[in-house]
Protein 1
Amino acid sequence: MVTINIDGKAVEVLEDTTILKAAEKAGVWVPTMCHSEYCEPYGVCRLCSVEVVRGKRSRIVTACNFPVRGGMTVRTNSEKIKWLRKIIMELMLSRWPNVKVVREMAERVGAGKPRFVSLERDEAEDACILCGTCVNMCNDVVKAEVLGFAHTGIQRKVVLPFDERSDQCIVCGACAHVCPTGHIKMVLEDYRGKKSEFTLGPKTPIYVPTLQAVPRVPVIDTKSCIYFQTGGCETCAKVCEPNAINFKMEDEFVDIEVGQVLVTTGFDLFDASKMAQYGYGRLDNVYSSLEFESILNSTGPTGGKVVMKNGKEPRAVGIIHCIGSRDINHHPYCSRVCCMYALKFAHLVRDRTNAAIYQFYIDMRAFGKGYEEFYNRLLDEGVTMIRGKAAEIVEGAWSGNGEPSLKIRCEDTLIGKFREIPVDMVVLCNAIEPRENSDAIKRLFSISKSPDGFFLERHPKLDPTSTATEGVFIAGCAQGPKDIPDTVAQAASAAARILSVISKGEVEIEPIRAEVQEEYCSGCKICNGLCPYGAIEFIEDKKVSHVNEALCKGCGTCVAACPSGAMTGAGFTDEQILAELDGLMM
Amino acid sequence: MAFEPKIIGFLCNWCSYTGADLAGVSRIKSAPNVRVIRTMCSGRVDPAFVLKAFQLGADGVIVMGCHLGDCHYQEGNYKTIRRIPFLKRLVKDFGIDPRRLRLEWVSASEGDRFAAIVNEMTEEIRNLGPLKLYAHNDIQQPVAHH
């Protein structure tokens, strides 16, 4: 620790601290322009210049990168320094007269009308002031090394390689984040022309999933985290006091032996941008059901307030049922839960706003306990029910009001007319779809899928939680769209079945099954791939195949395929069937 | 006496055998010429069985299973649909009319369909006449492969 004197104040700091940091500790203000807390000091703007006195002489140094020495005396407010700051700001003002940070700083240091005329005057409000923070971030912190300076003198500017859009850019947004003038902007583009600035998901790669998460700790999304793309940044680890962040953490693969499996892998939500007529992803204020749920949630992006992108309350909200469900072009089945949550949305919107609410439905499926009563309550609350699937959503200004909004075009089949309903916000009831990776799960556990893509139950009425594969059960939306009470009932039933087998301690299997006579097995492995249950394994040291009795169902496909006749099917051996043939043909 | 064909039917336990049972229980009249051998799955049917049946003097063989995608054992009928059509082409080289070997999908609820197939096949085999396996050529008319 050393003691230095800044403007008459004594302050003790660690050796090699910069004068700027020491001044901060002493409560003395030093202006900066090119300085950023994220990067190493750059020292190009010279605005932080201060006087360091030694004896009778003094020198002018930049406070941001000059290290202190014990006994140093620093003057930040001398006439020389004040004059220097004015000159620097007048120089900046002459080149960038309309940039907010330049004007504010000029005012603060007392600089008036510039005495210079710049040859490169830029009138823009978001002009680049060449502070270099974006370049330093990109090269030193993020380590993506995309931005750089080109040319010298007046021609100096920040460029991308070859002045082209760069594939090396990882689109981390760090440059846009640190830019003091707003010159760098983040624009989301999609090949469908989708643009979105209203983030409903996490805003940073490290985030706490929800405030109700268990455990409530942040997670890092390795796909967007800078460290996992370039090895740079690690800002979160640097600021974490208990050092809780470990980027080197690896996935742990654990082997657990189980006798039974319950598959409850859930569902995916239908991507409504596949139905271009509803404008999801293209028009503002058109939300999917899950997005609207997060808006309504008090821990969501709006704190539970029902507001549009511009922050205002909607004057009317349209809720459209069956987006992707009951549709021969997408999913012919009904997603079961949407009618009820659509009514819930209407109820909450009515509760929190004065908006007019319109429901566009085909049928109102209020099948459960208290559901129909809830629907009647909604009718009493004055929600307008229009029986007719909405045809399209277009942009249009409300007559008289003139504010831009949306219009829902539909056919109201109950009154037999086509209608155009002006609304400010639209909520879509997306279909419940099987998970994208359900094929991988299907193969892993040798279970089937029904034609709609959800996992196939053993019997639709009498056995909805088992599958044709012994020991593998399914529950919840993995088996088909259903709401919470039904999921709980199904899961409990599956758990009970599993427990009953576990408590028995042994499993009863059918006597009809295949068996390998090892003396005859030639090890050709033809049978291994044929078994739909994965019951046949190849024993490497004996070089013969072996049937797992617990998995074999006795279909006999392997028996028919075995070229050496090593595979027998108990109850349906070749000899038995040929004997039957003999008998029949006598 | 009119020629009564002897047809061997390999029926899978879960769909076609149950379908045939349903036809019986529903008292649907059908020709008695199909003699049934039950296997657990149509995938159990070894092509050797079919050839053995012809060798023992069967005038026709029909293999029935669950509809594709509905196999009780997931994929057994896919194995059948690989074996039997190939066998159909092969028996031609043995001098057997390919129309004597048939593959059909009959589900457990299709009692009518089972009876209809049985009647139809019996008629066709009756018109083809008895199998002359050791004659010079059993094939009577030009046959389309399918």
Note: Residues 434-504 of chain A form one domain.
Protein 2
Amino acid sequence: MARLAAIVRALGLAYRRDWTAFQSLVGNNFFLATVFFMGKAGGFIYLILGLVLLFPLSTDPMRKIPRSRLALWPLEPWEHRLLRLVSPWINPMTWVIAGLAIWTAGRTITVGLWGLIAGIFAAGFLLSDLPFAPAQSLWRPMPNFPGRLNQLVRKNLREILSTLDFYCALILSLSTIGFRIAGVAMPGEAFMAMTLLVVLALASYAQCLFGLDGAGGLARYRLLPLRGWQLLAAKDAAFLLVAIPLTLPMAPLVGAGAACMALAIGHSPAVHRPRTQTRWRFTTGASIGNGMVQIVAMAMAASTIWSYPAVVLVCVAAWLGSLWWYGRELEKTREE
Amino acid sequence: MLQGSMISCRNLTRRFGDSTAVNDLTLDIPAGAICAFLGPNGAGKSTTVKMLTGLLAPTSGQAEVCGLDVAANLLEIKRRIGVLPEDLGLFDDLTVEEHLLLTGAVYGVERSQTRARTDQLLHALSLEHGRHTFAAACSHGMRKKTAFAMALLPNPQVLFLDEPFEAIDPVTAKIMRELLASVARHGVTVFLTSHILSMVERIASRIVMIRQGSMVWNSTVAELPQSLEDHYFDLVESPVVEELEWLGSPRS
């Protein structure tokens, strides 16, 4: 039993260290905006956040042990079986599901809602236990783009699509389109607000454009014979290729302007304070201060463009100016 | 700097806080040479490569590559060199083939040429079966071969290779060795670090040894007074084998 206890203890420690899904929310613009500005409309937003969060949290803790290592350990068959039974309880979500089951028995929540939550959890748990990682192959096919930055843009698109920010924005965008198709009467301003929310959901990524490249990627960028603005442009192109289509069915000019502002403000922390990000988590911005500045700039740009569409050109100019300036700054950065 | 040198440095020094990683290094490597830069782990080999390729700024001293000052002409130097960095510098979200296509596009190689060179390199390095594998899913050997192919594809004037033969199978290592010998015959300068002395002995034309950041030997292979391994053990570090009594003793 001692070695089993040692393995479970080590698993628990590794799992706690990797449990970054909730921590990543703290520096996320979308979360900040919902906390500070949208308290009243929070229910729907938090439901979306909860659903998007639930999936990556539903991983099997046993995944932390490399398969080859587990096979090499001198464990008896009964110890393997016991480990299989005990390990799911290291994941707090198992306790949450169990707690909800008790609530369901007490008729506090419906069986249907419990079934939905438990189903999402079970799907995430089982998928994470498969010998191949479906997340690795998700979104891999990408179109080609003209120009020498093609492969960089494709790579950057794959990076964005491996963050939860994108899925949050996608659900928001699809919800609004659903309302539109259903013919639900909505005030015009609602489209502007939803557009802003969609870009807000993506905006933290603009603060950490190099967060998923890893140390090897950053070294490669420094070796490529490209100007700093070209490296940033490849990042920005991927961001805009995601943000603009998601806002097209709502208020496209507002979406383009807000996305340009998100990038214009985000370049500074992305270049000067690159922060490593984790795949399949919400992106964490450089700081709450940076997030607030970004949110205010985007909100001001969105409301002004809604009244005076030509202001979108000012946003584009701000983005281009930032691209040029921080491209130069990027060229100056070297390893410490 | 010495005329005709493709890699030169004078009093190159790099400090990290109180420790000196590279101390007062002065070198001249002529065109077409294969220079092996040897030393134990932590001796300053990778730091030197990083300073020569512009990845790391020196604390003091000067470096020139292809006759250009590294500090002042970084972009132009990047266009002329191929590098296999210590951490390989691969992107998890690109396949082996996409890495090579990216390299061709970024270094201004014509698209048809890039395609042809990609196919040739993948074939030569036995990477064809993994051409559509993402770097994140590649074995260490495949990743190293990809980074090596990326260094060769733009047809550089100088190659910097940080431990190119480690984690490589013997057949591919031989192919890489012959490719390097071939490019050197065409005037390309190769600067490599390695711990595999038998491989170095077969390929290098110049040997530089470094210990605790300071150069302790610099000559052509012909000028070595004894075998490379013996000379390395004499100058750089002698292997001290300690007996671990508990190894192999009856278990308690």
Note: Residues 151-332 of chain A form one domain.
Protein 3
Amino acid sequence: MPDLLILGPQARNPNLRDALQRAGIDGPMVAITAGWQEREGELAALEEHLGQRVHDLRLYERAEGVFAHDPALHEAYRQRQADLRGLQQTYRARLDHAKAAAREMFAQPADSDLTRWARRDAIAALRRLDAAHLGMIERVHARFTQEWRHVLGPLVEHQQADLKHMIEASAAVCIAGGHVAVLLNRLRLFDLQRLVRGRPIVAWSAGAMCLTERVVLFHDHPPQGAGNAEVFEAGLGLLPRTVLLPHAASRLALQDATRVTLLARRLSPAACHTLDEGSMLHWHRGRLRVAVGTSRLLRSGSTSAVEVAA
Amino acid sequence: MSTSADLPADATPGLDALRNAQNSPLVDPGGLTFVYRGQAEAVRLRLWIHGLPATQAFERQGDDDLWVLRIEVPENSRIEYKLEIERDGRAEWILDPLNPLRAEDPFGANSVAQGHGYHRPDWTLRDPSARAGTLEDFVVHSAALGSERHVGVYVPARFRRTRRYPLLIVHDGFDYLRYANLQAVLDNLIDRLEIPPIIAAFTQSPDRLTEYAGHDGHAAFVAREIPELLERSFPLHPNPAARGLLGASFGAVASLHAAWRHPQAFGRLVLQSGSFAFSDIGHHRRPPTFDPVARFVNEFRRRPGLPAQRMYLSCGIYESLIYENRSLVPLLRQHGIEVRYEEVRDGHNWENWRDRLQSALTWLFPGPLWMVYE
């Protein structure tokens, strides 16, 4: 398994260059900035930081080209996205109640078997809801793929050849943050999971979230709404048993033990890792070699710094 | 932030505390104690709180030049006031010399008393780390109004012509910029992803009591002429859900009237402390400037239609307009309009309107906060 570098947000105080040096990754870089949407490919700040040219794989632009080529495909894609939004809204409504029930159970002292059982069962209900939601999403994707495979295949094939060539000529693939749904959809459309196999990957924020098995959306104190963390989609699965939480310091109420314990227990056995400015996790041959500035959410409701096993 | 001295719960300050007070008023959970030091024949608090006397007299403490007044104020209140000092038979209104907090408005400035629990929201202050938008100035000849008008346009940071933007038109727009810090608010909310990048247009009427009082020419100006002007320069989203009007006081009346006269032009309205005078029977009890407003609001109450799909309304409970605003909410809801209504312990002033902008804008124009991790 090649090097995998996971970083916190890079927009203001990037640590990408330091992380690459520390990991011993040197050479030409390609970038995926599809999460930046209209700003895709605006790499001046990244290039200045790295001190070298970076080639963008332009997945957002390539996807727009694919859709422009076949309006029926584009319409079907839009419909799929509308279906997914509908699923998310239904899930969100159910989640509100399940989460409220769990919080209520955790607000009571765990001084009886009944309360302890009720807590476990409230968590189990959340996990069942999350799993059912992911299953429904998978069915929507499978139906779309089944119906449009014959059209999509030829349209993306020559793009994939070009992408493969660019990736193989690089020392690493950088996957930037941004809009996680837009990014994940483009990564899937061009089957990047297959194309990056065996190549070193550096990913941050939304880019890092996409590499996990489950992408979880979260904000504990949004200006509107309840702020319940939501399972959004299956990710590419390149980083198993991990949920990544970028901007945790500003988006999560880490001092709220009930929120932390609910999230940690609901998503276990995956480890929930915070990613803030300066964070770095480096896996080499499947083994965590470096962990800087990142914490794990614990079932107890606290957090602890992620450390590398001796 | 409060620069006033905080006291423990339900503590009325003693004389020593009053003599040594460096700031006024002294704040406790039950109220405010105002302190004035100086020669005077009388000292009075002048404030604009519906339900409280407009003038309240300080009491002199012994033979000192120390004057004190305590008033009960609920938690989270914000109050604007002046002091009236009477000397040599003449009365003068002044800002409180012991209170550095000021709120400016087009008529000058008032001192501000922040009750226990009130904190100025951090998103109302300029954040140096937030990407800043820019302001551009446009001049348009309005056929509907028969004169030239300046329109300020806020262009968000990282503006791209390949993207389509929502449009928010702001009545008393330059006042919102100056007194409600609207540019910093937009920068902050966009940077925090709480609202999407938007184009905002700021209008300022030279005769707002006429043009904002249910004036068809003004309605055409904001519903047709400004959007047409901006569509020539900016990629605007055409969907009514991406078009909004914002206004306070008479500006709220102008917003509702324009959307009512031009249904489908706007899907989102922010109506702050609207001067929605009306009369169920007989004549309204406000000055004559409200006559055209009451004609419009009475007509609106008879046949509201669907001026917008979503409206945010707010009003201070220390405003006399609270009755009119409360009355409007059930009517709007009965006609299928999604309404969010908030009441706060504040008066008819710009800082009240400033403090509600996050709640209003994030509800009407929700940003990509949930989906974007940069």
Note: The CA atoms of residues 1 and 119 of chain B lie 5 Å apart.
Protein 4
Amino acid sequence: MTALKYVILREILDQLRTFRFGVMFLLIQTIAIAGVLLAIEQDRQERALYEQTRSQSHKELKERMEQERGKFINVFRKSTRFCRIPSSLPFVAGAGDRSLPGLFQVSAFRVRGPEDLRAPNPTIGHAEQIDWNFICGIVLSLAALVLTFDAVSREREEKTYQMVMSNSIRRSTVIAGKGLGAFLPLMATWSLAVALQLLLWNLLAEAPLSVRDWTVILFAGVPIALFTAFFVLLGILISLLFNSSGACGTVAALCWAIFTLVIPSAGQLLAFRLQSLPDPKAAEARAEEMAAQARNAFKLEHGIGHQSSSWWFPDPLGLNLSAQEPFEKEWRNVRGKWEAQARLARSLSRLSPVATLRYSLEELANQGFPGYEEFAQQAAEYHREIRSLLLSLYPLDMNELIEGEARKKLDAVPLTLATFPAPPSRFPTTGERLVAAAPDIALLTLFAGLAFVVTLATVNRQSVTG
Amino acid sequence: MIWIIARRQLLDYLITWRFGLVLAISTVLVVLGTSLQVATLEEQLEDYEARQHQLRQETGDARTFNEVRLGVGRRPPMLGFLCAGQDQQLPHFATTGILYPPLEALGVPTAKDRFWYIGWGAIQTFARQNPLMRGLRKIDFAFAVATFLSLLAFLLSFDSISGERETGTLFLVIANSVSRGAILLGKLLGGMGCLAISLAVALNAALIVGLQSPRIALGTADWIAVGLLFAVSLLFLSGLFILGMVVSCWTDRPSTSLVVLLLIWTVAVALIPNAAPYAASLLREMPSESEYARKYAETSQSLQEMLDELGHRSPPPSSIPMGADFVNSERISGFIPYARKLSWAPREAVDWYITGTEEGNRFLVDSIDEQWKLFDVRFVRLLSQRDLAEWLGRFSPVFSFSNLAERIAGTHPSVGVRFARQAKQFHDLLIAFARQEGGLGLRFFTPLKREDFHLLVDYQQLWDAGGMERIREIYEEKYEKTEPVQGLPVFRFRPEPPLDVALHTDLILLTLLPALFFIWGFFTFIHREEAGRP
């Protein structure tokens, strides 16, 4: 144990003196500070936009409720805008949120959307946000490889490796010392970057961090540590396998490019090829046809001879519900296919620890696709609540035409903002988030464990000269 | 001597496993990515052709100016599968008419799309794209060059000098009667040869995949653009290769030069191209989509109010029996002297409509100009975000390369801007034509001449003789004899002149950088003292 401590200490001191560590340290701190400053501005803009949209939607609903005529019809027929609440931790995994839609139009009949609150600029390509996913996935992983790719090969080149190994020190101790000697300074660098980010966030951001946010930040350290450990071990493994530092550097660079760029991109490409998408316009046309059939069937069944071309009025509620059902069904199908494709892309990309880290952080912070899924479920829930309120308050027969007295009866139904369902704003608890992130954290543990076992086996079986 | 060094260097590079591995990875990615880009391009071409066909069918026999609907379009660029750029997000087609400015050209969805399919919030969404997968990087030939082949350039050059310095062969080489400049130039030419081979392999792989599609056919201009793309890619990679050599000249150990180059690569490829657009989108904030929806609704509302006011100002002549069935249902509302389509009516009513429609169209044309301006301002703001992103991004040669590749392939947003501007000019031309042909008055709502309409007295007689059926019969006969609107202008998209592309800042930057790097590397190498290994 003393030997291990000694090796670690020596390795840490060696690392701290190197040019490459200095550059990586500065790069990580600079990117982290720039990232959080941009995230603060993004948070301000997104909160303002969310508040504006929400209050506008609330105002419109109130106006509809204050109408003298057609109040009931308008309240339930017209959509209410249901927006995604901005994340309180945009600097953790906010990139996922920025590229995803944040709005549904919800009424008693349909859930329309998803839409963008502020559409991405079509003249600019997709840009990654400088969040933890980016800093860890791209920079920290590179730093881990840069600090370790010649850990053994360089000593071999300088002939010091044979001398170290000829001492009465276990090989695994030397390798563990080298690994921890790179891992600990990296984690210290990362911790400092996080501390700076949190300091700036607390000083400058509008929304302070809640207890839940602090818990997320604390737990996020686990996947990040596992991820860093994987790349440190990968660097050492590469260094063990090749004699020349140049060759080690080349292999490390290629491995890094494969994990950060190739596998995530290839996963998404394959998902595009494997999971076909429906054409929304064709789905809409199909729904229109089915709605016309449903209308005719309803009219025949209930003997309604009225040939209104207008939607809702004065057709009976039952007719409108059956006419709108195909639209809801078709769009649910379209959205389901979109979600299935995104899920497949994520599953295929999980071969890379960079993608796995991203998904675990998104699960923990309830951002990106997991956050969207939760949001879409809440939109469906909101739709069901509005619908059940409509059905509970509806004073007429479902098959009765809304004309004359029936219309007056509808207008007389008391409707207030208090009785109307509030948009859901449920956040998953920390426990739920941990459970959701557990598979990805387990996968990262597997990656790190596998790298550890292979490295250990290599160092024990390999001759000292490589 | 230079050629001998170059040839030897080239052969050395070609037999290294790093060359083979990077080339294999980039080729596989290019093939996979290109197949997806080809599928998207095919969908775009299909949509474009379907819309043109549909429009031709719908408006082939427009007899009134109000019915005229013309398509303004630009064919999706054929080289989109080599460099997708932002073209997939930008409009290729817009419908325009007298009262319909081509708003789609500014990325505004059609009224139907807006209402039924995607709403305002998805203004730029190409219908078949998955909005949940927008974070996808567009993988194509340009992406492979910007990321993998740029990495290859560094991987080939990082030990070109420092490697030989470490093994001691550099001292032996320069001890011969070979000038240092010749060594440097020979190594550069050998590296460029190797990069040219890898570029050719990747480009050919992409072309083979692309040209399998029956919808994609390249013309002479496209082949010239392919050649230009190859040349620009080689220029970009050469710049990076020279930078690698410079770093290699400075350092004693190849591992140190590799670390430095990897850092440069991370900043140039991963950091700046991502941070620049992200920062630009935050620094130049855009209003929300609902804000534009509200403003649009306000302009539509004021338009309706203006028409109502017109109705109050110009009541119908007392002689006309209002409520009589002489107007098709396409009036805007009530007793407003503004007709969209008139098939039969007494001449007195027609006169009332001519005056009203002329007056109404005068302010309607101004009002739709306001609508255009509303979205044009939005478009300009989007472009100002893009400009800022470009200027911030130019700190990385990768951004400059991507920009230039998009310009050559015709997928740069500037093409979309040209399209929008030309679409508006075409709409102005259409209005001028309509004005000249009387299309804002009588011919706006009927193809018949004023004299073709019976005076009220005769009209009443026809009514008494055969009722509405008789009137309809007579007027339908007259209507059948009329001709569709002739001589309408035709839209032809004029792309960016090639000279503008050639003289672009990015090309100057990409040309200057290798030259500067080479001079820097040359002086470093010349002035550095080399020593043999003990």
Note: The CA atoms of residues 13 and 181 of chain A lie 8 Å apart.
